[in-house]
Write a structure and sequence with these properties.
Aspartate Aminotransferase, domain 2, pyridoxal phosphate binding, transaminase activity, 13% strand, Aspartate Aminotransferase, domain 1, aminotransferase, binds pyridoxal-5'-phosphate, 42% helix, transferase, 13 helices, PyrdxlP-dep_Trfase_major
């Protein structure tokens, strides 16, 4: 049987088991403990943040981040439209309303010009959003500087969803550390994983302290379990933090491996007609968490979905680019600022298998398959074209 090639799978290093064993040996099988503290501190060093709180998922981190900037019922939050649904769900958890903002083609992330225009319009009518959630998609940073400038100008807090972009840079610094709060994810498909987990970072110690408070059921400082506010059970287990510490040691290797995948794909496939790879914006290093490309069916000979299905037939898992949130049935009632570019990227965009543990044989199989799909589609179109012109000939 052919071995399946999956989109992005966990890739452990040498030290995770050692850290986990230490947790077992010391009986720190709890959502607090030395690995959690060390993981937070080591994470801060890696991304250049001042404070961090480890939590149970990236979604939990976003849910808390929104509360740190006082998002609540009825508020509006501007949010990138081209992203995974987890970016916007916590806005709904809080009874607030997402307003989706389109991407640009340079980074596939939020278009700063569009944001500026929208904020100007909103300021004129006195209806600024309560916060902005900026996504750094597929390992590539958004163009952060102009967005920070707009947020500062209007005093709207910026939350960065860097769940997919740990290891990326923007002008030499880590996306996720420019806003008031940033979040990361260690879900199983991300560039490093704790099987499930997330991190919230901020340069404001009060915000991170409040994160810990909310993530541990919002206990007042009293021995008798007193609560003046609703909290959550969102802390990361000390065992999983041990996995995270091991994974942090190999982050740079994982970035290199994923960038290598991208280069191999690009060298082999960019000459095929109709294939365009996701650009790397000039302002930083993309991790190429996933290798993404767009397919023009007219010149390639098959559309994105035909390619995806043909790959699935060969036991190769590829996925469409995220369906933009403004097109999701669940957000049908929400306002959207632009959206045509995200829609176009979705309709033509495909993510190829991109794990840091892919072998060169795996990459070769994906490349061969896509090349075959192109040539066989072009051939069948030529035959179809021939038979219709032959029919027309006969009619005459
Ligand atoms: C994975 C992801 C999240 C959520 O992270 P979890 O740890 O899975 O909860 C949020 N935003 C984006 C863009 C993601 O890709």
């Amino acid at each position: 049987m052919t071995k399946p090639i999956l989109l992005s799978t966990p890739h452990l290093g040498d030290r995770e088991l050692e850290f986990v064993k230490e947790a077992f040996d010391t009986n720190w099988i709890a959502p607090v403990g030395p690995h959690v503290d060390a993981f937070e501190q080591e994470f801060c060093e890696v991304v250049g943040a001042r404070y961090a709180a480890a939590v149970s998922s990236g979604t939990a981190a976003l849910h808390l981040a929104l509360q740190l900037v006082d998002v609540g019922s009825g508020d509006e939050v501007f949010c990138s439209t081209l992203t995974f649904v987890a970016t916007a769900n916590p806005i709904i958890y809080l009874g607030a309303k997402p307003v989706f903002v389109d991407s640009d083609r340079t980074s596939w992330n939020m278009n700063p010009d569009l944001l500026r225009e929208a904020l100007d319009r909103r300021a004129q009518v006195g209806k600024l959003p309560k916060a902005i959630v900026l996504v750094h998609l597929y390992g590539q940073s958004a163009d952060i500087a102009p967005i920070v400038e707009e947020c500062d100008r209007y005093s709207v807090p910026l939350i960065e969803d860097a769940a997919e972009s740990l290891g990326a840079t923007y002008k030499g610094r880590s996306p996720g550390t420019f806003g008031k709060v940033g979040i990361y994810s260690f879900n199983g498909n991300k560039i490093i994983t704790t099987s499930g987990g997330g991190m919230l970072v901020s340069d404001d110690p009060n915000l991170v302290e409040k994160t810990r408070f909310l993530a541990t059921q919002a206990r007042d400082p009293a021995p008798h379990y007193q609560h003046s506010q609703i909290g959550y059970n969102y802390r990361l287990s000390n065992v999983l933090a041990g996995i995270g510490r091991g994974q942090l040691c190999v982050l740079e290797d994982r970035v290199a491996a994923r960038r290598h995948n991208f280069e191999i794909y690009q060298q082999a496939l960019s000459n095929l007609p109709g294939i365009t790879f996701m650009p790397e914006a000039s302002f930083g290093r993309a991790t190429r968490w996933l290798t993404c490309l767009t397919i023009d069916p007219a010149t390639f000979g098959a559309d994105r979905e035909q390619v995806r299905l043909a790959l699935a037939n060969k036991q190769i898992e590829a996925r469409p680019v995220w369906k933009p949130l403004h097109l999701q049935p669940v957000f049908a009632e929400c306002e959207s600022i632009g959206g045509a570019i995200a829609q176009d990227l979705f309709e033509h965009g495909l993510c190829l298998p991109s794990g840091s543990n892919l072998t060169s044989e795996d990459l070769e199989r994906v490349i061969q398959s896509i090349t075959e799909i192109h040539y066989s589609s072009v051939k069948s179109q030529v035959i179809k074209g021939y038979s219709t012109s032959a029919k027309a000939e006969r009619k005459r």
